[in-house]
Structure formats: C-alpha cells, structure tokens
Amino acid sequence: MEIIRCGWCEKDDLYRKYHDEEWGKPVYDDDTIFEFLVLESFQAGLSWYTILNKRENFRKAFEDFNYRKIAEYNEDKIEELMQNAGIIRNRMKISATIGNAQKFLEIQKEFGTFSTYIWNFVGGKPIVNQPKTLKEVPATSEISDALAKDLKIRGFKFLGSTVIYAHMQATGMVCDHLVDCHCK
C-alpha cells in the first residue's frame, strides 16, 4: 500500500523522514523550540532542504543548540563559526542567533518557559488546517504576523512572519498536512 504524503517532502528519504517524524508534531520543550528557531532563522532566503541537510553540522557548531552557552558567545566564537564550512556562514545570522539566545532567556524569565510564551499565541493547542493542495497552505497568517511583531519588539532578529509561520508548522503550532496525508 502506497503511503500518501504532502507533496513537498517527496524529494528524498531525509525529507520524508522529517515530514513523517517531526513536521507538524507539537513541540513544547524549550530546547527543541530553540533549535527550530535557529534553523528557521538560518533558512531565511534559502531552502529548508539546504538547512535540513546541514542540521547535524549546525547541532555540532552550536553545541546542541544550547541557548545558555550560545548567549555567551563572543567575537572569537563568531569568527570560529564563520570558518565552519558545514553551516551557513552568514555573520548577521550568526550574530542574530547569539542575540536571539539572549532574548530567549529573557522570555523564559518572564513566562517561566519560552514554550508558554509562544504557545499562548495559539491558545495552547495546535491550529489544524484542512488544506487539500499545497497551494492552499499559506506562507503567513495573522498569528505569525503578531508573533513575529512581538518577537521583533523584544529584540529578536531574522524571525519575520514567513519564518515564524514555518516555525509554527515545524513545531506543530499549526498543522498544515494535506487532508489526504497519512500524518493528518
């Protein structure tokens, strides 16, 4: 029996595995939420496939996405990361990751967890859409607009509405699996 998936993930096994095991599944732990914020911010202007292929390199380069450690990075660490051919070597995105880690910690102090903060935007539970085709899947929403705006006010960088909507999809805040997808 053929497994039906969302058409965007049929490029190869890496994409299919990500789609089947992660994409659209609700994530409530801060460590994974931060990982996806980093990956999504680096994805801005690039394909998600490029980032997914470099994910393990990012994990090693950013110490398993340990936001407490990343918040302490200095210019020497930025230079080290700029020499790492396994990641996207964009100084502005690397610097933004450090600043975002610092802001992430501030939100944790304010809300107890970053998860509490971010999930408040969707009332604490996933929004389940019913798209029949990929064309029906939006790139942004009113919620991603509001969340991106709030993050910007709080000092986050490289997390505009499109990036945030992709983050919401990745972490299951919104489920955009097509109605005939086996993951629906």
In short:
The protein has about 180 residues and is mostly helical.
What does this structure look like?
The chain is an all-alpha fold and 184 residues long. The chain has a single domain (7-175), classed as Hypothetical protein, domain 2 (Endonuclease III, domain 1, Orthogonal Bundle), CATH 1.10.340.30. The protein is built from ten helices and two strands; from the N terminus they run ααααααααβααβ. The chain has helices at 13-21, 30-43, 48-53, 55-61, 67-70, 75-82, 91-111, 114-119, 142-153, 161-170, and strands spanning 127-128, 174-175. α2 (30-43) crosses α10 (161-170). The longest helix is centred in the middle third of the chain and has 21 residues, at 91-111. It catalyses: Hydrolysis of alkylated DNA, releasing 3-methyladenine. Keywords: DNA damage, DNA repair, Hydrolase, Metal-binding, Zinc. GO terms for molecular function: DNA-3-methyladenine glycosylase activity; metal ion binding. One of its GO terms (biological process) is base-excision repair.
